[in-house]
Amino acid sequence: MILEAKEAKTQYDILREIKDRWSPRAFAPEPIDTKTLNTLFEAMRWASSSMNEQPWRVIYAHKGEEAHKKIVDALMPGNQIWAEQAPVLMVNLVKKTYTRNGAPNKSAHHDLGLAIGNLALQATAEGIGLHQMGGFHKTQLEELFDLPEDYEAVTVIALGYFGDPDQLPEALRNRELEERNRMPIDEFVHHGQFSR
Ligand SMILES: Cc1cc2nc3c(=O)[nH]c(=O)nc-3n(C[C@H](O)[C@H](O)[C@H](O)COP(=O)(O)O)c2cc1C
């Protein structure tokens, strides 16, 4: 059974794409065409960023391309096992300094996150699943792509249309079917003062 949306049980009503987005590990083999990928990149483009620096950069590759293999090579084994089947893999980078004056950009990671948030919601609207990964060998990936000193690989994302969870090893299949859950609002929202 292919699961496209894993609707969050929200405390308040929110946008459909936020509710439905989840991180799949099973992908259909069908590729993502260039126009659809560009729609996702367009969504990234319009994220806000400190000083409008737009510090995000991406390197993407389709399954079967050399760069896709390179990205798989740099993933941790627990991610390799499922992510190598993803039709598209993408490395998300930041430029660490402001172009205008060379000063360190302390908002670069934050702003990449905003752009990826846009991409995630656009992908959900397009019926595409994405799974973000921090589990990769950073230095290896940066060397494989010969990144200049001023750039850092922050995350890798697997993208594709939703696949059949039965194609996954049992432990991963069970995780695929688990409900999404979150801490309640009052555990992270404080009115007027911080409390633990
Ligand atoms: C920065 C970041 C790094 C992550 N790294 C991994 C990873 O290496 N492997 C993995 O399977 N999932 C990874 N995830 C996915 C999270 O585990 C997942 O988003 C979280 O459990 C919430 O589930 P949901 O996205 O389905 O709502 C990562 C997510 C983020 C945002």
From TrEMBL:
Sorted UniProt keywords: Oxidoreductase
InterPro entries: Nitroreductase (IPR029479), Nitroreductase-like (IPR000415)
Domain Nitroreductase: residue ranges: 18-161
Record bears the keyword DNA damage: no
Keyword Oxidoreductase in record: yes
Family: Belongs to the nitroreductase family.
Designated name of the protein: Nitroreductase family protein
Organism per entry: Marinoscillum luteum
